[in-house]
Design goal:
heterodimer, A: Aldehyde Oxidoreductase, domain 3, Aldehyde Oxidoreductase, domain 4, seven-stranded mixed sheet, B: Ubiquitin-like (UB roll), 2 domains, five-stranded mixed sheet, globular, iron ion binding (chain A), Ald_Oxase/xanthine_DH-like (chain A), oxidoreductase activity (chain A), Ald_Oxase/Xan_DH_a/b_sf (chain A)
């Protein structure tokens, strides 16, 4: 490793095109494609009596109108249940177009294809759907009452019910431990719905040439979209290509697949023999993609005089909306990651995952962790308050210690593997945070408070990712990995890894992600896994290619491969730079040729004398070319951690809430590019601030989402987000070759907990729900709670 | 349904005169993206809140998703494709965004670049509060704005160095 770029704040290689209008997002492609639009349900719950398209038939530009009845049998089946789980006894997924019942506002009922989007929407406006409204179920508590049902065949609206118990060190269960604890508390917490809300919505563009199908989708997983499209449409897998081009943000929502539109748009392209494109509009994104967060939690905790947890018993009502395509990953993550950096004694957690007539719930950055951390951190603050102790001290009393790793929490994590933390140093992290924010010197005043929140995040789950590396005869290094990018700077971070491993200048490295033409085996970008899983796969592939380069060069230079190094793209004998060969030449020699295409490649042809005539040109077990493919499959997650603190001020009259300072100490193991990691943290904190103070999905009792626009769903602008101060701790992961842990979701996870902690400190009022608006704080003050 | 009436307009886009026939309801954003193929201008909400579609209309930032193309007849429009001075170089604002890591997914970026270009033309050395105010009509879901704010100050420096 001579060209050390790993760990440097290298400027991003994707920026030039994105700064000059050269990005290629789905809607930038397919200028001549037909446009699709959808008639969507205006009701939260209704039976479809009739669909009348008569008035739409003479609209100029109309190409086709499709209802469920028009779909072939395999296309009209329910969408896949992506992650089955034994506890998900009543999993239900939507049909691509509703058949007789709609279960949330926004569910697609009719697909229209026209010459352009204006015409397609004209057609939609003239299609009349006759609905018989049914009783809607809104909110988890109405769901659990079971009076009205979202799905006739799901009693009590319960999709899944799961209890997990971990006994304490003395073998007793949580409930027993709490009964006999010196101190106990019980309380309820509420977290409202929010959503990922990338600025680019979803989009699908499909081309069919009579044999091969190419689909562009704004997705977080092109390989899985490909397999689903192939299976549903009956096109053999090798004839389907799926490409995630530039994607304008994902934050979890775009991991769901196949969306109805990802099936219907390619199907329409095949049926019509024309290119078809659909671009989601903002209202569609609010009512027809996915939300997250919404939970009600009931907590009981027992603890000793030092604030040490003896038993914790949490019951969660999780609102998963109308369907469960992503299984019960979110409440599983809440239940397990709730434990944070702590030893909790005995733990019992029970959740019911409930159907409601609202948009489905699937992971949004943090994926259930913000709710779990809110629960644990509120618990810590309440214990401190009860005992009159410093809140940081109570946390420290419960920390897993550095010598305890690997630490087994005794549960099954979201990847189906044991929840074993690999490494970390929580006491040191807390010291760093206290110093960064000035915890011990903070001057408390009425309307001015300080808060803290700690979390652990399982990152980089399997099953695997791959890396493919090819060095071409011009000396350029082409890297690809199958997972996708939505702004994380993969083209830069992965190029840093490749340049470092291979010893080439980064300018010669290019990276392609999310294109099944380049690498067909991948899982996707979610769960802070790209750097961990693809990063290590690429490093392994580079090591394989490097080994071959040294072997080929050693032959040509008549040297021992062990004596060779690669510096600035040149293979040379260590300490003897005159005996050298550029990687471009090595690439030529690695591919024995019959036909030259330039002077350089003439060296590899059969009369050039480079090869031993008594051996086959390509040795047994070898392959032509200087390229390699490797996969990295982690045994289980690696556990990143972070601690945040904030100082807030509140207005005594208006109850306006202002975050004055925000500090983050973060540990994601070895940093590939600290500039990119900090950017991820800044963005995550901003989303967390949105979730703590501004963003909520407001459903009325009829199941109408009344704030489905950026005018009413309040995402923070620059004026609402505090300056984030960061410090890094690096405890390398022992589980992977690069010693890295994931960072993508980190920033968002504890923010609601931190803001609640600081607000409670400023106001002296328990803060048990998030988000909280000035008017809610005002009412809390006046109600004397 | 009858064919829509089309109106002829002439617009100077990034320095080149373009003649177009557009229906009255055609949005400027759609006209730029789909009629002229200038897909650097992005559409994030179509109700004028996110600012992704911001372009410069006679030097002033406007929401192209709230502007009918027919109303800009005779105007000069600059989109993100027209911000760089040419010959492969970037404008000070573009360079500052790259230097300060002021973009991640890049979807909101063209709107920010147009907004900030106009902001600095008006106020070459904005204070911190003026920067926050100046970009407070553009949403970004990736960066948390911190590096965008930094980039605006850096762009002001780069402009000053070059003038």
């Amino acid at each position: 490793m001579t060209t050390k770029l790993f760990g440097e704040p290298v400027q991003r290689r994707e920026d030039h095109r994105l700064l000059t209008g050269g990005g290629r997002y789905v809607d930038d492609l397919g200028r001549d494609a037909l446009a699709a639009a959808f008639v969507r349900s205006p009701h939260a719950h209704a039976r479809i009596r009739d669909i009348d398209v008569t008035a739409a038939l003479d609209v100029e530009g109309l190409v086709a109108i499709y209802t469920w009845d028009d779909l072939p049998e395999r296309v009209g089946r329910p969408l896949p249940l992506l992650i089955p789980h034994p506890a998900l006894t009543h999993g239900r997924t939507a049909l691509p177009l509703a058949r007789d019942v709609v279960r949330h506002v926004g569910e697609p009922v009719v697909m229209v294809v026209a010459t352009d989007r204006y015409a397609a929407e004209d057609v939609c406006a003239r299609i009349e759907v006759d609905y018989e409204p049914l009783k809607p179920v809104v909110g988890p508590e109405q769901a659990v009452s079971g009076v009205h049902l979202v799905h006739d065949d799901v009693p009590g609206n319960v999709g899944a019910h799961l209890v997990q118990e971990v006994p304490g060190p003395d073998g007793r269960g949580a409930r027993e431990a709490i009964e006999t604890a010196p101190h106990t508390l019980s309380f309820r917490l509420d977290i409202e719905r929010s959503a990922a809300t990338p600025l680019e919505g979803r989009g699908v563009y499909a081309r069919w040439d009579g044999r091969d199908l190419r689909v562009y989708s704004s997705t977080q997983t092109s390989t899985s979209v490909r397999m689903a499209v192939s299976a549903v449409l009956g096109v053999p897998l090798p004839q389907v290509e799926v490409i995630a081009p530039d994607v304008g943000g994902g934050f979890g929502v775009k991991i769901v697949h196949p969306w109805p539109e990802e099936i219907l748009v390619p199907w329409a392209a095949m049926t019509l023999g024309r290119e078809v494109k659909w671009t989601e509009d903002r209202r569609e994104h609010f009512v027809a993609s996915a939300h997250e967060r919404g939970q009600v939690q009931h907590v009981r905790v027992g603890f000793d005089d030092d604030g040490r947890l003896l038993g914790l018993d949490v019951t969660i009502l999780h609102d998963h909306g109308a369907y469960t395509p992503y299984g019960i990953i979110v409440p599983i993550v809440t239940s397990t990651q709730l434990l944070g950096p702590y030893k909790v004694g005995a733990y019992r957690v029970e959740f019911s995952s409930l159907y409601t007539n609202t948009v489905q719930v699937t992971p949004y950055r943090g994926a259930g962790r913000p709710q779990g951390v809110f629960c644990m951190e509120r618990t810590m603050d309440k214990i401190a308050r009860r005992l009159g102790k410093d809140r940081a001290e109570v946390r420290a009393a419960n920390f897993i210690q550095p010598e305890d790793f690997p630490y087994d929490q005794g549960m099954t994590f979201q990847d189906g593997r044991p929840l074993i933390y690999d490494s970390g140093d929580y006491p040191r992290m807390l010291r760093m945070l206290k110093e960064l924010i000035g915890w011990d010197d903070f001057e408390r005043a009425p309307g001015r408070g300080i808060g803290i929140g700690c979390y652990v995040e399982g990152t980089g789950p399997g099953p695997y990712e791959g890396g493919h590396v090819q060095i071409t005869s011009d000396g350029q290094v082409h890297v690809s990995t199958g997972l996708t990018s939505q702004g994380q700077g993969h083209e830069t971070a992965f190029a840093q890894i490749a340049a470092t491993e291979l010893g080439v200048p980064i300018e010669r490295v290019s990276v392609v992600t999310g294109d099944t033409r380049r690498l067909g085996y991948a899982v996707g970008t979610f769960a802070s896994r790209a750097a961990v899983v693809s990063g290590n796969a690429i490093a392994l592939a580079c090591r394989k290619v490097r080994e071959k380069a040294l072997r080929v060069a050693a032959d040509a230079l008549e040297a021992d491969p062990a004596d060779l190094e690669i510096t600035e793209g040149v293979v040379h004998v260590a300490g003897a730079p005159q005996a050298s060969m550029p990687l471009s030449t090595v690439a030529v020699l690695a591919n024995p040729l019959r036909y030259a295409f330039d002077e350089e490649t003439a060296r590899a042809t059969q009369f050039a004398g480079a090869a031993d005539p008594n051996r086959p040109p390509v040795a047994e077990g070898d392959e032509p070319g200087l390229e390699g493919r490797e996969f990295y499959s982690p045994i289980r997650c690696t556990f990143a951690a972070g601690m945040h603190a904030a100082i807030v001020e509140t207005d005594p009259d208006t109850a306006e809430i202002r975050i004055v300072r925000y500090a983050v100490v973060h540990d994601c193991g070895n940093l590939i590019n600290p500039m990119i990691v900090e950017g991820q943290i800044h963005g995550g904190v901003a989303q967390g601030v949105g979730g703590a103070l501004y963003e909520r999905m407001v459903y009325d009792e009829h199941g109408q989402l009344v704030n489905a626009s950026f005018m009413d769903f309040l995402m923070p602008y620059a004026t609402e987000v505090p300056h984030v101060e960061t410090a890094h701790l690096q405890t390398p992961s022992p589980l992977n070759p690069l010693g890295i842990k994931g960072a993508g979701e980190a920033g968002v996870i504890p923010v609601s907990a931190v803001v609640a902690s600081a607000l409670e400190d400023a106001e002296g009022i328990p803060i048990d729900r998030m988000p909280i608006s000035p008017s809610e704080l005002f009412h809390l003050r006046t109600s004397g709670r | 349904m009858r064919d829509e009436t089309r109106f002829e307009i002439t617009v100077t886009v990034n320095g080149a005169a373009r003649r177009l026939r557009v229906p009255a309801r055609r949005l400027l954003s759609d006209c730029l993206r789909h009629d002229l193929g200038l897909t650097g201008t992005h559409v994030g909400c179509e109700h004028g809140v996110c600012g992704c579609c911001t372009v410069l209309l006679d030097g002033r930032p406007v929401r192209s998703c709230l502007t009918f193309a027919v109303t800009v007849d005779g105007s000069k429009i600059t989109t993100v494709e027209g911000l760089a001075p040419g010959d492969g170089r970037l404008s000070p604002v573009q360079r500052a965004f790259a230097e300060c890591h002021g973009l991640q997914c890049g979807f909101c970026t063209p709107g920010f670049l147009c907004t900030v270009t106009a902001l600095l033309a008006d106020n070459p050395a904005p204070t911190e509060d003026e920067v926050l105010e100046g970009i407070s009509g553009n949403l970004c879901r990736c960066t948390g704005y911190q590096n965008i704010v930094k980039a605006v100050h850096r762009a002001a420096e780069l402009r000053a160095e070059e003038s």
